[in-house]
Amino acid sequence: MKNTRSVVMLVVAILAGLAAVLLAARWIHEKGQTGGDKVAIATTDIQFGARITPEMIKMVTWPAGNEPAGIFKDPKVLDGRVAKTSITRGEAILEGKLAPLGTKGGLSAVVAEGKRAITVRVNDVIGVAGFALPGNFVDIMVNTMEDGAKGNNDKDRSISKFVLEHILVLAVAQEAGRDETKPKVVNAVTLEVTPEQAERLDLARSVGSLSLVLRNQIDQVALQTVGATKESLLTGFPTGSGAPAPEVIPASVQQPAKAVMRAPRPRSAPKMEAQAPRNCVEIIRGASKSIECF
């Protein structure tokens, strides 16, 4: 009898606990729905430059008081808008991530105001082995001849110099997606530049060969270089630094012959005939020498 009563009490306690959990979950759900507004979120990944269609969005309830700035509560106003940044699935669609009204889709929609897009030809070496991807920043270096060079064969007057810094890569070939990190070897790279930078880049590719130099995404430090020449490469001094030239030792000049006075040498007299002592002088002329006595 006692065992039966214990089992009944245990079953009642379990049922009461389940009922409490269900009631609490329902209350929390209703509380979250209370006071919330319907906002538009993305139902799929939206690439930058893409036009938004009704199939790409859905309306969900957002807790009141926690709405981010620039949300959309009417899905109709999003029809035809163009994304200027990538929007991931489930992310709220905000005004700051869209191009201005009336903008058509494509690469031109993501070019910043006042900037221009220009394409340069690259290969697997110039394009940093395919690591210059959309969204990366690069510096641009040109190799050309200094003023006064006689021709392309005058390698002593060649110079390599950075001409543009911190340039945004908009697209590689015909792809502008920024979500991939796998390198792609392509034959053209599209860059975002100012009109003045576009002029310098067009001139640089006409007077020499270009190279892209990949830089850190957050590196904003301006470069302070004077360029590299054959002279600076071999001497280790920067171009035009005023480094002392190596000392040139002139060829030795032959000195005229000089007479060298030496002490007289004693001469042994012949055994058969005695001679009076004499004073002698050794005279050196170049490589020859002689002795004169008096």
TrEMBL record:
InterPro entries to which the protein is assigned, alphabetical: Pilus_assmbl_Flp-typ_CpaB (IPR017592), RcpC_dom (IPR031571), SAF (IPR013974)
Pfam family, one: RcpC
Superkingdom per UniProt: Bacteria
Domain called SAF: residue spans: 37-99
SMART domains: SAF
Classification via NCBIfam families: pilus_cpaB
Protein name: Flp pilus assembly protein CpaB
Protein's organism: Uliginosibacterium flavum
